[in-house]
Write a structure and sequence with these properties.
InterPro entries: Pectin_lyase_fold/virulence (IPR011050). The protein is mainly β and 126 residues long. It has one domain. It has no helices and 15 strands. It is globular, with a radius of gyration of 13 Å. The termini are far apart. 31% of the residues are buried.
């Protein structure tokens, strides 16, 4: 499991390209930013599969952009977010499918922006 917690500065950037997280005991990738820290997160070409919780979990104050990524066959959610007001989530050209619970879970918060384009959400059929 990869966890990144950042709270030392008022702003930070995290860019990951061609990252693979497979068969972890918890989340494939967890990103957290405290309320007073505004994060800019770019995930490009992430493959997160067969993890025992979520493929990706993002919490806190962040502007998250996910491109050309895959979240498949995770035991819980493909992508799970609890973002604070003023945050955003953008997903494009990505595949989210065959996860145990839901493809994407967005816990409600006032004032967040969500944009999804050119992406495929598929179910797991038995």
């Amino acid at each position: 499991m990869t966890e990144i917690f950042y709270a030392l500065q008022e702003k930070f950037k995290y860019h990951a390209r061609k990252l693979t997280t497979i068969n972890n005991k918890e989340n494939g990738l967890t990103l957290f930013s405290e309320n007073r820290v505004q994060a800019e997160i770019l995930l490009d070409g992430l493959v997160s599969a067969s993890n025992h919780r979520n493929g990706l979990e993002v919490n806190g104050s962040a502007n998250v952009k996910i491109t050309s990524s895959q979240f498949v066959s995770n035991d819980n959610d493909g992508v799970s977010t609890t973002l604070n007001a003023g945050s955003s989530l953008e997903i494009s050209t990505s595949l989210i499918g065959a996860n145990g619970n839901v493809g994407m879970c967005i816990f409600p918060s006032e004032g967040i922006r969500v944009k999804i384009s050119h992406s495929n959400f598929t179910a797991h059929y038995y």
